[in-house]
Design brief:
Length: 126
């Protein structure tokens, strides 16, 4: 099977040696997105909910660049530096996903790139 890199300017550029997403067959693997504004490359201002929303906006942009949407997400992993934000992630996520919801893991971590407090990656089935 071949693999194809996915790129869009509507999501932050990769800040390392990785692609925004890779498509192989009917699967698309989205790299972790943090709350960066795609235009400026800066972490968005605001509270945790605003940062979580930007993460989902970035995932949405990459999913669309791959020819899909967040409706195609079958697996979602959310990384949090404070699991106390779990309920807020659920509230924000409810604005982006409908039933049947994707399989999901929420993982508490010590730190994330650029000192942010939330990151998410996803797998789409197209």
């Amino acid at each position: 099977m071949s693999k194809h890199a996915i790129h869009t300017d509507a999501a932050p550029a990769a800040i390392g040696t990785y692609s925004q997403a890779i498509r192989t067959g009917g699967l698309v693997f989205l790299s972790g997105q943090i709350p960066l504004d795609p235009a400026s490359g800066n972490v968005v201002d605001g509270n945790f909910a605003a940062r979580a929303k930007q993460v989902f906006e970035n995932l949405k942009a990459v999913a669309e660049a791959a020819g899909g949407s967040l409706d195609d997400v079958v697996k979602l992993t959310i990384f949090l530096t404070d699991l106390g934000n779990f309920a807020t992630v659920n509230e924000v996520m409810a604005g982006y996903f409908a039933e049947p919801y994707p399989a999901r893991a929420a993982v508490g971590v010590a730190s994330l790139p650029k000192g942010v407090d939330v990151e998410a990656d996803a797998i789409l089935a197209l």
